[in-house]
Amino acid sequence: MALPPPGSPQRPQTWRPTVQSFGKTDIGRHRKANEDSFFQDDPMRLWIVADGMGGHAAGEIASGEAVDTVYGMVKRGLGTIGDRDAPLDGDEVRSRAVCRLLESAIQAATYMVFGLAQFDSAKTGMGTTISCAMIVGDSFVTGQVGDSRIYRVRENEAVQLTEDHTLIAWQMKQGLISEAEAKTSPHRNVITRAVGNRDYVEVDTNIYPLAPGDSYLLCSDGLHGYLQPDEIPAIASAGGEVAVEHFIQLANNRGGKDNITCVVVEVR
């Protein structure tokens, strides 16, 4: 867990962010079913993207159940994090409580999906990624398992906030392969962490300070696999549903080999 830095010159002292989100999922051009799921609740300030995996519709079940479980657990646990509008800056106790809430919700989803697979041998090993975000006060809190991603767009620059839990990401981090080698690696689709293929998973949580004008993109690899980070700001600047449609159209125009899901969160 990363705690936010004290204060930010980009944020007014009494600023209370307002948010609006836009989301869509698309089957793509080659898949017979859509195994992605997403969730958006602006009043609750919670957004989720999940990319399921497994045969016999198991991926669709895994992602849908995981999203529903995370939503339910977060909703029931909101009372543990105090005033939702109060800043987290410098409040280590509340910061840890918020991260624990997201982590516990994703762990509950892991146990739920794993448990469902025990009752149907055809769904053994099914799982899903989770990229989850919520806003508390003037902070953006993320929970991550797998290789879906969350990007922040600020001042015309896109930064990936989440870490891919894939074999090639680990190899690159260890200096075993180059970025160029990673693009052609036969192992580029191997995920090292997923929700539900075991009864426990390590969850990454982080806290980032918000700034007025931020946009956040949550997406499955069906989008980011075709997308360069320096392309994100221009598309996101179109705003709202137009931006979402442009992202999905880009992925389809460049191949559309996977399901495509994106949620854009705009902060004012």
Describe the 3D structure.
- The longest helix has 27 residues, at 92-118.
- This protein has one domain (19-267): PPM-type phosphatase domain (Phosphatase 2c, domain 1, 4-Layer Sandwich).
- Strands 2, 3, 4, 5, 6 and 9 form a six-stranded antiparallel β-sheet that branches. Strands 1-11-10-7-8 form a five-stranded antiparallel β-sheet.
- The model is unreliable at 2-9 (pLDDT under 50).
- It is 31% helix and 25% strand.
- A hairpin with a 4-residue loop joins strand 2 and strand 3 (46-53).
- It has helices at residues 58-77, 92-118, 167-173, 179-184, 221-224, 232-236, 240-253; strands at 19-26, 36-41, 46-53, 127-128, 130-136, 139-145, 149-154, 157-160, 204-209, 215-219, 260-267.
- It is α+β, with helices and mostly antiparallel strands and 268 residues long.
- The protein is globular and about 50 Å long.
